Amino acid sequence: MNVDVTSGDGNKHDVQLYTDISAEWVSGDHGANAQWSYGTIQENASPNAFGPASKATWPASHAPKTYGSATAYALQTSVAHPDQPIHGQGQGQRPTHFRPSRISAAPTSTPSIPANPNTGGIAYHQVYRQQQLNFSETNQQADWGYWYYATENTADLTHQSGADVDVRGQFLANGYLADTTDTDYRAIDDDYPVFGFAVNLGMVNTKASSTLFQLSLHQNYCVRFENTNGNETVPCLWTSYFDSDTAAVGTVYKLFAVTMPTCETARILLQ
Is the dihedral angle over the CA atoms 224, 225, 230, 236 positive or is it negative? Predict the structure, then answer.
């Protein structure tokens, strides 16, 4: 998601931008325990080179394995899909657990925002289901894999994880986040943990100020099929290109300029 902020009335505006994701992304079972961490990606990773799929060089010699399937087999479905998916409360609507009484009023004057002393690279929140259940889903949400919420690690960036009302309340009251990580790993619906970024855009005028946020799910295995040898589990293709989750996150983030026409852009007009 690329966020453009610009002045619509020709005046300068002092702007702080906030965004977060919640642990509700990691499973449709909100009683499941989530775990998370915060970090930065400093390495300049690049994907391994592969030949075109139609030529003999595909897959590359260092690819994990070549798989084949039988022409006829019986496969039993193990996951029942409900007629109507159940959506997490925190995604796209005001959640019922949001308690305004615990949030301080927005500052009436320009906040004094600390600068990030450790800049460079890509900053990310990682969040995942503690008990990974490969090829399982609850309410049409995968129960395995690792979510990454990332943005550029600039001097104007602050971050925080914790209960929704605490993290959002910190930003509303101060205009920045506390640069702290909650280590009380718990159930998704227990004080709803969120993972936030705040960016101090400073004085914004008619020239757009842009900030890019990237959300991605990384699963080591994403295909399971039945053949004459029984069930086979196939690694996701991205694992043949990258040595780690963070290498993939950093590379794809930097490819935004190439893929920009296909990405979602949020435009905020200040008046």
Answer: negative
